[in-house]
Write a structure and sequence with these properties.
alpha/beta; 2,3-Dihydroxybiphenyl 1,2-Dioxygenase, domain 1; 2 domains; four-stranded mixed sheet; globular
Amino acid sequence: MKIEGVDHFTINVRDANESLRFYGEILNLERLPSVRMSDHDLYYFQLGQYSRLELIEYDNKVEPIAFTSETQGIYRHLALRVSNIFQWAEHLRSNGVQITSEPVWVSTLSSTNMLIQDSNGVEIELIEKRSVQL
């Protein structure tokens, strides 16, 4: 008995069209077929070989809950591994994406990391792994 991997990561979206544009057009994730459930729509994007991003848009809209990066007892962010993180930063900046932490080398992690927010205010970390600092 073992965990085989992550099947999907879910985000409840505020606006499906903006979210679909962000993940499909800006992050260039491969869109997968959508599913209509009884009271919500599921939109999928491929994340690597085996994982998916699941965006949920509920028919009934409720007020979003505000939290900070220090709020405890919640999932904090989705981390995506990328190549050419500085090109990503320019691409995201040119598309009006909020960059909350510019790319920075983190020697203890052997990676360059940056933080952005999606169109829902969800934090996303982009990580470029390197064995040495460039």
